[in-house]
Design goal:
Elements lengths: L3 E9 L2 E6 L2 E9 L2 H10 L4 E6 H6 L5 H10 L3 E5 L5 H9 L4 E4 L1 H5 L1 H11 L4 E10 L2 E6 L4 E2 L4 H10 L4 E6 L11 H10 L4 E5 L5 H9 L4 E4 L1 H4 L5 H6 L1
Parallel strand pairs: 1-4, 1-12, 4-5, 5-6, 6-7, 7-10, 10-11, 11-12
Antiparallel strand pairs: 1-2, 2-3, 7-8, 8-9
Length: 243
């Protein structure tokens, strides 16, 4: 399985930001021009971009379609994007705006049967299920609605359900490590891989340096989301791509 580095741009109020552990009250602002940020990633050799609408993740109603279309039309980056995807029409709109893949988070935990139908309808290569997880009494529980509460179903059980319904791409964020530069938890991703070795799993949360990128690859995962480490300069994209 090939390995892909996904530089990430999280947008809130039109700016590139990073949250600590998914907390909207703990925000760091980086760049008022998300498009320019994306093009810098392309200049450094990226072929994919992970684009998140943080406002929509909490309130619904994706707002980044003009930015998505502009990036996609330039043809330098394939884009997987999400935030506030609630309906079939949302998916169709994002694909029409140029998304290569649409990321579905909360609904994948709240209504997995509906998301399974969308995977069948749009094709497994067009949908990424996102499980953003927290540990609760020994279980990995997905955080939903902009990480403001936990779902009741555990992540491994949801992965098995989606695996059995054709899932190809899973993005799993370790919320406790997200934005903390604390390193990844290989045990989490090893457990996910054991449940669904045929699913391409993307590591997210805690990546701080080249060693973490290598560790993500060693688990057998298919990619890693690179966020704060890139924006703060702890990791260069060219180094990550080279390893």
């Amino acid at each position: 399985m090939s390995f892909t580095c996904y530089p990430a741009i999280d947008v809130r109020d039109g700016c590139v930001v990073r949250l600590r552990q998914g907390d909207y009250a703990q925000e760091t602002r980086y760049d008022p021009d998300p498009h320019a940020c994306a093009m810098r990633f392309a200049d450094a050799g990226a072929t994919w971009l992970h684009l998140v609408d943080l406002d929509a993740a909490r309130a619904g109603g994706y707002t980044l379609a003009p930015l998505l279309r502009r990036i996609a039309d330039e043809g330098r980056l394939q884009v997987q994007t999400g935030g506030g995807v609630r309906t079939r029409e949302d998916i169709a709109s994002l694909l029409d705006a140029g998304a290569t893949r649409v990321v579905i988070g909360s609904l994948a935990a709240e209504n997995p049967a509906l998301v399974a139908q969308w995977i069948e309808d749009f094709g497994a290569e067009r949908i990424v299920v996102a499980l953003d997880v927290r540990v609760d009494q020994g279980r990995w529980l997905p955080a939903i609605r902009g990480w403001t509460r936990n779902a009741s179903a555990d992540a491994l059980g949801l992965l098995v359900f989606h695996r059995d319904h054709g899932l190809r791409h899973l993005l799993c964020t370790d919320v406790a490590r997200d934005g903390m530069l604390s390193g990844i938890d290989p045990a989490l991703y090893t457990a996910l891989r054991r449940c669904a070795p045929e699913v391409a799993i993307q590591v997210s949360g805690g990546v701080r340096d080249v060693a973490d990128v290598r560790a993500a690859r060693t688990t057998g995962c298919a990619g890693a989301i690179l966020g704060r480490a890139l924006l703060d300069g702890h990791l260069s994209l060219s180094e990550a791509l080279a390893c």
